[in-house]
Design a protein that fits this description.
- The protein is α+β, with helices and mostly antiparallel strands.
- It has two domains: 62 residues, Arc Repressor Mutant, subunit A; 132 residues, Nonspecific Lipid-transfer Protein, Chain A (2-Layer Sandwich).
- It is 43% helix and 19% strand.
- It contains ten helices and seven strands.
- The strands form two sheets. It has a five-stranded mixed beta sheet with strand order 5-4-3-6-7, with helices on one face. Strands 1-2 form a two-stranded antiparallel sheet.
- The longest helix is centred in the first third of the chain and has 13 residues.
- The radius of gyration is 17 Å and the shape is globular.
- The chain starts with a helix and ends with a helix.
- The model has no long low-confidence stretch (mean pLDDT 88).
Amino acid sequence: MLIVRELSLGPLRFSELARGVGGAPTDILTRRLRDLEADGIVRRVELDLPASGTAYELTALGDGLDGAMLELGRWGLNFYSADYVADISPIWLANALRVVLQPPAGFTATVQLHSEGVASWIRFEDGASSAGRGEAADPELTISGAPPAIVAALVVGSSAGVPGIELEGDEGLLDQLREMVVIPERLREEAQMMVESGALLIAATEAAAASA
């Protein structure tokens, strides 16, 4: 599922995929990819210019795992602690937010994320969401900052006091996104306590400094 999570944002070269899944041993990752190819979940493609080389991407069958991936992530929130947010990588940020954001039917918006040199986007449409790497066309809102700061601004309820957060575009959209956050109440209370104590803000500041 880690491979599916990384490829859900778009094609990746083998080396990029290895980093995304946490530096898995080359032989193990090779076997997993070979099995996924044999099952028709992943395929190899040649990247278009200006990129070059071979990459892996999800097939239509693989794309069908997107909903299951999100629901598994939401179930896993029952076992998370709020301090785990300090370890969210910017390359996971878009999908991490998709796990906690459940848009209502009829809601449509595109949000651009800039975090520690990584650009990604989330598109909400008709009660569902999709995500990808790079720059979106005409996003309604762009949120920039370290992953802990972005998560704190959404979950706790205010970008004020969260260091390193920058907004561009429809700032009112941030309030709408906050209303879509669905997490166990225990996690919300832990996050609030961490912000009030300064622990989450310290994590955000340290993440921002590390990427500078």
